[in-house]
Input
Amino acid sequence: MPYNRFKNHRKSPRLRGWDYYRPGAYFVTINVKGGVCFLGEIKKRTMELSEIGKKVDSALVKLTQYFPNLHLDEYVVMPNHIHAIMFLMQRATTGRDDIDQAINTERSKKAEYYSKITPKKGSLSVIIRSYKASIKTWCNNNGYGNFKWQPRYHDRVIRSNQELKNIRKYIIDNPKNWDKDENYPLNVKRI
Output
């Protein structure tokens, strides 16, 4: 069957026209592949982390050491997913941007095109990709080779203080509401 770009093309979940490199607040959800509860379990409405869950938690906190433009706000590790509010902050300029811009003006059209579509250092996608890769590498090296992340991740640009407040409450209450969560194994719709 031939490829049909209109029928077979996935619609992007990203906010149209938004640059995920620029400062902003993001609500991020990362799922374990297949909804498997590798990260721990909920007992008495409280999350108890597994060994993988402990690594997921500590690595999330350490992200700010590797990405100085990142501020981690409220987050929760659930049995098969994580939720986090991430703020990308304004970067300090070093003068290097001026040099890069001068070099970029000399590039060919093709190089410019690839530069525009390549994720930028410190962008949300680079941060999430680095995080997921570090966890997978740790799992492979520590006897958890069957652990896998779901491809991609879900994000939402937080656009108001009220929305931020609501998302913080959702994250805090997530373990208490686990049995109502769409990621709760008995609630997941299988295709």
User: Anything to note?
Assistant: The beta strands are 24-31, 40-43, 46-49, 70-77, 81-88, 154-158.
